[in-house]
Amino acid sequence: MPSLFQIVANTPLWVWPLMVFVVWIGVLSLRARTVPVWRLAILPVVSLIFSLAGIAQSAQPGLAAAGWAVALLAALPLGLALGRRRAVRFLADGRLEIAGGWFMLAFGLSIFAARYALGVLFGVAPALKAEPLWIGLAGAVGGVVAGIGLGWLAGVILRARRAAVALGE
Q1: What is the pairing mode between strands 33-35 and 96-98?
Q2: Count of domains observed in the chain
Q3: Across 58-72, average pLDDT
C-alpha cells in the first residue's frame, strides 16, 4: 500500500490546477451574484462530461452505463430539491440573480474527491478496473454526481421561472 506522500507525488500535475479551478468556482458562489445561466451550468456540465468519459473508458461500457443511469435517475430528485431551495430570479436581460451558498463548493469538491479516490484506487489496484462490481460502482459515482448537478441546475432554473411567473414578468 503506497503512502499518502507517494499517492500525492504520483498524481498527474494537471490535477492540481483543476482542483484550484473547482475551489475558485466554489468560493465565487458563496456570495450573491448576477450571472448568465451558462455560467451556473459549468460544474454540472463538467460532471456530466467526466462521467460519460468514464463510461467510454470503462472495460465494460454497458455495465458502467447501467450503473450510471440508475444512479443518475436516483440522484436527480435530490439535486432538483437542492436547486429549488436557492433564492434566484431572472433579470430582464436573461441573466440570473442568485443568492450565495455552499452548494457549488461542496459539489465541486465532492466531484474532485470522488474522481481522485477512484483514480487512486484504480492506480493502486488496476485489476479492479476489470471487476464488474467496480465497473458498475465507478459508473454509479459518475451518475450520482451528474444527477445531483443537473438536478440542481434544473431546480434553480425552475425556481427562477416560477418567480418570474408569480411576479407577472
Answers
A1: antiparallel
A2: 1
A3: 96
Q: What is the pLDDT of residues 108-148, one digit of tens each?
A: 898 899 889 999 999 999 999 999 999 999 999 999 999 99
pTM of the full structure: 0.87
Instruction: State the residue range of the domain holding 156.
Output: 4-166
Q: Is 80 exceeded by the pLDDT of residue 7? A: yes
> Is the alpha carbon torsion for 102, 108, 114, 117 positive or negative?
negative
The Cβ-side half-sphere exposure at 151, using a 13 Å CA radius, reads 21
Grid cell at residue 166: 408569480
d(CA 140, CA 156): 24
Distance CA 123, CA 94 (A): 45
